[in-house]
Request: fold
Amino acid sequence: MPKAGSAVASRQRRKKVLKRTKGYFGRRKNVWTVAKNAYEKGLTYAYRDRRKKKSNFRALWIQRINAAARAHGMSYSEFMGKLGKSGIEINRKVLADLAMNDPEAFEAILKKVR
Reply:
């Protein structure tokens, strides 16, 4: 009895990768080894950047809080230090949202901190 090969499974695996590299530039879209490497590299970037996204957002929140605090004559570090001492537990995400969308509420927090 002849030995069964794995041609069907191999072809499916290759087709899956080539389908996902559709739209890549040059040989990255249609040459198996190049496409496989590009696809795997893309997955590693995706994994890394899902974590990096969190620090990018934190940096954005800090910039927004800093801008709003400086508009009222206080630096970010001074504001956050006084916020901690006054016992107000509010995170940077919410503070940045208040600074952007509800300046009156942010100003009220700033006055309470002073």
